[in-house]
Amino acid sequence: MTETIKTHVILLSCGSFNPITKGHIHMFEKARDYLHKTGRFIVIGGIISPVHDSYGKPGLVSSRHRLTMCQLAVQSSDWIRVDPWECYQDTWQTTCSVLEHHRDLMKRVTGCILSNVSTPSTTPVIGQPQNQTPPIYQNHNNMNHKPNAIKLWGKLSESLGKICCVRPHIERFTFVDENANLGTAVRYEEIELRILLLCGSDLLESFCIPGLWKDSDMEVIVGDFGIVVVPRDGADTERIMNHSSILRKYTDNIIVVKDATNHPMAIVSSTKSRLALQHGDSHVVDYLSQPVIDYILQSQLYITASG
C-alpha cells in the first residue's frame, strides 16, 4: 500500500496529566508502532491536550504547571506536541469539543478538510484547496520533492509556532491564532487525514458507566473520529466493548493496540506517581522522566496529599 493510499493519522490524547508520566508518552509510541505495522496508517503527529483547571479533580495542580511538565516530557520528541487550547478556555471542555476544535483548526490552517471514519478511503480529503492556482508540483521527474503528510505536519508545527499567542510563563507552547492564514505556500499531495483519540482501556471502560458520558458525545467521538486503545494491565477490551451499545455499534472504529508485551498501569498512573513523590519513593524514576521530576521538586508540587 503506497503512502498516499494509507490513512494519515494525528493522535490526540486528553487528560489531567497530573503529572504526565513515562507511560503517557509510551502510549503514543506504542500506538504509532502498531498503526504502522497494520500497513493501513501513517502517524504524522501526536497532540497532548491537558484538561482545564475547572475540571474539579482533587489535587489537580494549575494548568501552568501541567503544561510545563508536559512540554518537558516531550522536549526530545520530533512528532508529539503539547497544545494549551483546552487550558486557555473559560471553562472545562468535553473531549468531544476538543476533538472538534482540532479538526476545525486543521481545516482553517490548511485550507482543506479532514475525513471522519465514514469517509470512503478512496476519496481524497486533503489536497490542494479549491479555487486556487494549480499545484506547483507538475514535474513528474521530480516527484521525490513533493511534500508528503509528514513534511506537512513539520511545516505546520513550524508555522504554528511562529504565530503562537505569547502568554505569561508558557511562551514555549504552540497556541494557534484561529484567524491565522498560512497562505498558499504549503502545497501537498492528496491524502486522507484523520484525528483519532488515543486512550487507555480505563477510558474505554468509562464509556460503559451509565450517565458518565453523553450518548451524543460518544457517537461523535467513536462514530465520527474513532479511537485507538492501548490496553492496560491485560484489560479485556472485547468484554468492555460488549457492555456498551454504542461501542458495539462502532467496533470497526475502535483500534485496539496489540503486541506481545503488556502495558502496566503503574507507569501510566499519575496517582501512583504522586504517591511515590509524597513518600519519597525512589521508584518515582520508573514513572516520571527526570526533567519532570526536577520541575516538580523545584516547584514543590505534590508534596502533600492534597496536591
TrEMBL record:
Biological processes, Gene Ontology terms: NAD+ biosynthetic process
Superkingdom as given in the UniProt entry: Eukaryota
Xref: Gene3D superfamilies: HUPs
Main location: other
Keyword field: ATP-binding, Cell projection, Cytoplasm, Cytoplasmic vesicle, Golgi apparatus, Lipoprotein, Membrane, NAD, Nucleotide-binding, Nucleotidyltransferase, Pyridine nucleotide biosynthesis, Transferase
Transmembrane segments: none
Catalytic reaction list: nicotinate beta-D-ribonucleotide + ATP + H(+) = deamido-NAD(+) + diphosphate; beta-nicotinamide D-ribonucleotide + ATP + H(+) = diphosphate + NAD(+)
Cofactor(s) annotated in UniProt: Mg(2+)
Membrane topology: Lipid-anchor
Pathway annotation: Cofactor biosynthesis; NAD(+) biosynthesis; NAD(+) from nicotinamide D-ribonucleotide: step 1/1; Cofactor biosynthesis; NAD(+) biosynthesis; deamido-NAD(+) from nicotinate D-ribonucleotide: step 1/1
GO function terms (MF aspect): ATP binding; nicotinamide-nucleotide adenylyltransferase activity; nicotinate-nucleotide adenylyltransferase activity
EC number assigned by the record: 2.7.7.1, 2.7.7.18
Stored PANTHER family: NICOTINAMIDE MONONUCLEOTIDE ADENYLYLTRANSFERASE, NICOTINAMIDE_NICOTINIC ACID MONONUCLEOTIDE ADENYLYLTRANSFERASE 2
Subunit structure, as described in the record: Monomer.
Protein's recorded name: Nicotinamide/nicotinic acid mononucleotide adenylyltransferase 2
Source lineage: Eukaryota, Metazoa, Chordata, Craniata, Vertebrata
